[in-house]
Write a structure and sequence with these properties.
12 helices; Ubiquitin-like (UB roll); 3 domains; binds guanosine-5'-diphosphate; binds magnesium ion; alpha/beta; Rossmann fold
Length: about 350
């Protein structure tokens, strides 16, 4: 089947349809059909594009960051600035395209950074090796969208559109929709949104769901409902990095800063900006550092890196599988302890910078 053709036809039908209350259901159904086709198309292409060619890189470290942007925006230079590793940008720009991994060590965390070949316009439609690049981007915990200060707006909108096309949702929480399928019986819809319940049922039917308990949260839109039916979507944090600020004047920089208050403004030639970028990357993960103390009383200088909210149980798991099973108690120093040297159990929540001594059987 020609997916693109079918999608275009449906999109054309939507354009032709008057938008009002009476046609809302019809349009939503067309959208559902489009979403389904795009999903099938993406699955097929990911299968085709997956594997080989230097694109599979083992995940190492505490988190993975992908550098995404057009060619020549300075991704490889950024990799070098952040990690000290040469990415031989010129070499592979013209010959092989591959993924270059390097480790950024910051505050004890080891963050894997992937330098990817620049994605060109319409990479999401399969041009160049864009599809494979985007397949790797899907595996990242954080996406750095790198654009040039001189073309920030244009590049940003085009990159975000491409990421959306390949099923990557940026900075967005999963929609507040819960569906538990049942073997038989009628649809039970708990609808707290403004959406029309019969349209919701029609969309679910269109996706092969005929019997289920469905909860739709407040503020859910049709696109959210469609997204919630799509298990190929990934929800990934992102950070916009506006590079080469050395090429623009301070006025232009100020305008950009007010336009993109959350973006990080950098230049590979201004080390302070790279330092700020390292810090912003680290903060995105909300890591906490836990120092272990041996029974001899020596505190490790190399912290364990865990997610905020981690408990003593998570600390045990990070050290050794069996430690949790043989756990007796732990002693904690730091802000999570009521007093220095508090004795705690597996469910005790740790804080950044805490020291822990674990006693097992
Ligand atoms: N002026 C300026 N040039 C840069 C900066 N970063 C990279 N470049 C230059 O931009 C070109 C492309 O850089 P490269 O890192 O290979 O880009 P990539 O294709 O995105 O990996 C090279 O000539 C770099 O020297 C920067 O911060 N400022
Ligand atoms: Mg490069």
């Amino acid at each position: 089947m020609d997916f693109d053709q079918r999608i275009r036809e449906l999109e054309e039908e939507i354009r032709r349809t008057q938008k009002n209350k009476a046609t809302e259901k019809h349009i939503s159904l067309l959208l559902a059909k489009i979403a389904k086709l795009k999903r099938e198309k993406l699955k097929m292409e990911l299968k085709r594009g997956g594997g080989g060619g230097g694109f599979d890189v083992a995940k190492t470290g505490d988190a993975r960051v992908a550098l995404v942007g057009f060619p020549s925006v300075g991704k490889s230079s950024l990799l070098t600035s952040l990690t000290g590793k040469e990415s031989k940008s010129a070499d592979y720009a013209f010959t092989t395209v591959s993924v270059i991994p390097a480790i950024l060590e910051y505050k004890g965390a080891k963050i894997q950074i992937l330098d990817l070949p620049g994605i060109i316009e319409d990479a999401s439609k399969g041009k160049g090796r864009g599809r494979e690049v985007l397949a790797v981007v899907r595996t990242a915990d954080l996406i750095l969208i790198v654009v040039e200060a001189t073309a920030a707006e244009k590049q940003l909108s085009s990159i975000t559109r491409m990421l959306h096309e390949v099923g990557i949702r940026l900075e967005k929480k999963r929609p507040d929709v819960r569906i538990s399928k049942r073997a038989s019986g009628p649809m039970k819809i708990f609808n707290n949104s403004k959406l029309d319940t019969s349209t919701i049922i029609a969309i679910l039917n269109e996706n092969g769901i005929r019997s289920a308990d469905v909860y739709i949260g407040e503020g859910v839109e049709y696109q959210d409902l469609l997204d919630s039916l799509d298990d190929s979507l990934v929800y990934t944090k992102s950070l916009v990095v506006i590079n080469k600020i050395d090429l623009i004047d301070t006025n232009t920089l100020d305008i950009l800063k007010s336009k993109y208050p959350k973006a990080v403004f950098v230049s590979n030639y201004i080390p302070e900006t790279i330092q700020i970028l390292k810090d912003r990357i680290y903060k995105e993960f909300d890591f906490i550092r836990i120092y272990t103390k041996s029974w001899k009383g020596e505190v490790s200088s190399d912290p364990l890196i865990l997610k905020r909210g981690a408990t003593v149980r998570d600390v045990c798991r990070a050290i050794h599988r069996e430690l949790e099973e043989n756990f007796k108690y732990a002693i904690v120093w730091g802000t999570s302890a009521k007093y220095p040297g508090q004795r705690v159990g597996l469910d005790h929540k740790m804080d950044d910078g805490d020291i822990i001594q674990i006693y097992d059987q």
